[in-house]
Amino acid sequence: MTNQEQSDKYGIQYMTAPDSTREWLTQEPLTQPPIWCSVDLRDGNQALATPMSLKEKLRFFKLLVTLGFKEIEIGFPAANDTEYTFCRKLIEDDLIPDDVTVQVLTQARAHIIEKTFEAIEGAKNVIVHLYTPTSVAHREQVFHMTQEETLALAVHGAKICEAARLASSDPNAIRFEFSPEGFSATEPDFALSVCQAVCDVWHPTKAHPVIVNLPATVEVSLPHIYANQVAYLRKQLTPAEGIVLSVHPHNDRGCAVASAEYSLMAGADRVEGTLFGNGERTGNVDLITLALNFYSQGIHPNLDFSRLSEVTGLFESLTGMPIYERQPYSGQLVYAAFSGSHQDAIAKSFAYRKANPSHMWDVPYLPVDPSDFGREYETDVIRINSQSGKGGIVYVLHSQYGLDLPREMHLYFSQMIKMYSDRLKTELQSSQVYDIFLGELVNLSAPLTLLSAHYQQNSGIEAEIRFQFCGEEQTASGIGNGRLDAVSNALKQALHISYTLNTYTEHALADGSGAKAVSYVELRQGKRTEWGVGLHTDIVTSSVYALVSAINRLLQCDDNHFL
What we know:
Helices cover 41% and strands 19% of the residues. By secondary structure, it is of the alpha/beta class. The strands form 3 sheets. Strands 1-2-3-4-5-6-7-8 form an 8-stranded parallel beta barrel, surrounded by 7 helices. Strand 12 and strand 13 form a beta hairpin.
C-alpha cells in the first residue's frame, strides 16, 4: 500500500450537478430496455493490442447484427485506410440491413468531417457522431482552451456537419449525435451549455431527434453521482421531445454496469457499450451483462444471447481477448457449483421444478437458467472436485447415466469421488465420475469370480454355485429365503467370511440403455461398510453380481480402501 503522502495527490475529479435531490432514485424499477448501440468496432477495436483486420471486422459486424443490435458504431473513417475501407465496403456491398443504423465518429475539425461524410455517402441510415473534449483537464492541460473557445469549437463542428448533411445525396438518411468527451469531469452547467448550443444548430424534433451522448470517458465517481449529472441534463436540455439521451460509461472504478442502470433510471434512453466490456483501460460497460440483467428480471432486452458460448468463442477468436472465467453470465465457471451444499440445493430445486414446471425460476445459487444461454446443467452447473457434496455427484450419475443410487449409498460414493479428486488435485469430469463408478463398484471379478449359479426350490431356495477365488475354481451350495440370500450363504460358508447383507435395491436403466438392470448391495462387516453394483440384462444375475462386487471390496486390503 502506498503511503499517506502519495495518496494526498488525489482528489475529487467529478463535478456535482446543481440539482442533487436525486428524485430519480425514487422511480419504479426499470421496465424496458434502452436503445442499444455497440461500439465494439470503434471503441473496442481501438483498445485491442492488434486491431481487427477488415475481414475480422466484417465478421464481427455480422455477429452484432445477428445478436439484434440496431445501432452499431463502425469506426472513425477519417482515422486510417482500414476504417475508411471498412465503412465503404459495408455501404457499397449492401451489407447493412435496412433496419440497422451504422454510426461513425468524427472530431470537430473541418477536414475530418469532410472525410467522414465522404465515407458515409450512399448509406441508408447513418449517425454522424461528433465529439469535443470538454473536461477541465482537457481544456487546461491538453488544448489550452477556455470554456468559450471549447463551446465555439463544438458549435463550429456542428455547423460544418449540418452543411455537409444538406449537401449529401440523401440528407434524411443522416442523423446526428454529440458527445462532450469527459462529460463526468466537466462542470455540469458548462456541459449543458455546450450540448444545448450544438442542439440549437441541429434543430432536433420528435420526428428527427438528436442523440446527446454523455460519456464517463474515465469513471471518476460513484454511479449515482454520474447518474445525477445525467438527470440534470435530462431536465434542462430542450426540446426534450427531440433529445435521445445516451450514456457511454467506462469501467475504471468497476461500476460501469451500475452507472448505466442508474443513468437509465435518471432518464437516459440509450446505452453505448461493448460485448464483454472490451475497451480502453478497464473497458466499457459490458452490454451482455447489462442486457442479461434486464433478462433476469423478466424484461427481454431485445438482444439474442441464447447461444452465448458461441458468441464468447467467436469474440475471443476475432479479438484475441480471453473472457474471464467469472465474467457475469458468460464466463466458463459462472454457473458452476463445486460446494456440496450448493450442489445439493440446486439438485433438489431441479427436482422440485420438474414436479412443478410452471413455477417461476427461483433456483438457489442460479439467478438465471443457464440453458437459456446454451449452457448445460450437467457440464456447466454441477462440477465435481474434492469440495463437492453427495447431492451433486449423485445428480451427475442420475442425469447423465440414469443411475439412481440408494440414499444410503450417497455418502459412500461421494467420499470415494472426493478422495480421487483430492489425490489427483483436479476437477473431475462427469465421464470420469462414471468411469470411477464402473471401475470401483460394478461387476467386480477379483479376487472372487462367479462362474455359474443354478437354483432349485428345496425348503427355500437352494443355490449351487461354481466360482473362482484367487485363481482356484471351487463349488459351493447354500440355502436362503431367495436366490440372492442363497448365493450369499453359499459364499459365506465357502470363503469362511462373515458379513450382514444390509441393503439391496435395484432398478431398470433409462430407455435406450439396452434394457439392463442395475442392482446395489450393501454389506456390513463390523464397523466397515462396502457397496457393490451389478449390471446385467437379467435382474437376478444383476443382483448376484452386485453381491460379488461388494464381497470383492470387503476382501480388498484396507490400504486400498476406495482406491
